[in-house]
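Handout, section B. The chain below has 110 residues.
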Amino acid sequence: MLAACGPTDVEGNQQAAGNAIEANGTKPAEEASPDPAGLAQYREDVLRGCIGGGRDEAGADVPVERHCACAVDRVMEGRTMAELEAEEVSGEYAPRFTAAMRQCIAEIPG
């Protein structure tokens, strides 16, 4: 289980779920060339945007930061910078993020 995700059957803010993703499939190690600095910066940027947008829509008791961290981690899991960038360009990123956010909202209590 990812660090930001916790088990629970919680209802979250569905508005904040509008920008989420599904995290399936990872690439074999030989295909992935890690860029730790690039991935860390990417995560920070996406997380900041998610929290900012989610906080505008969510109620005060909604753990937007935890929901966003969970979804971002799921979307990034097992992917390289090149794969993440290609997903953004192709349009695959947004629906994956939406699915992951919905999962995280369901798992993390509000």
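Note. Confidence is low (pLDDT under 50) at residues 1-32. Compare this with the example in section A.
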